[in-house]
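Retro notes (design track)

What went well: tokenization of the new backbones is finally stable.
What didn't: we kept losing track of which sequence belonged to which structure.
Fix going forward: every design gets posted as structure first, then sequence, in one message. First example under the new rule, 89 residues:
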């Protein structure tokens, strides 16, 4: 079980680092970048679960998390492109 905890720790550290490094030219841009990193962390943690557990209900929630968080990342990425275009105009 110690190994499983280590896997989550690594993912959490990566997410925290990426969130701390995410910066933009505006508060909105910074928020978008931090949220992308946050949602990616949820996906990465869900993948750890899927790779290491056969508990059906938890696996179903992990897959649902991946699907929903990926949709959010796509929406945030589009929002970032739009925001950056607005800043240039």
């Amino acid at each position: 079980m110690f190994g499983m905890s280590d896997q989550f720790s690594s993912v959490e550290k990566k997410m925290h680092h990426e969130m701390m490094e995410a910066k933009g030219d505006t508060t909105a841009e910074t928020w978008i970048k931090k949220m992308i990193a946050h949602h990616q962390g949820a996906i990465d943690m869900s993948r750890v679960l899927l790779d290491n557990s056969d508990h059906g209900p938890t696996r179903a929630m992990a897959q649902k998390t991946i699907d929903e968080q990926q949709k959010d990342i796509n929406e945030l990425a589009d929002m970032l492109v739009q925001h950056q275009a607005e800043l240039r105009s």
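Added context from the reviewer: Helices lie at 2-21, 27-52, 56-88.
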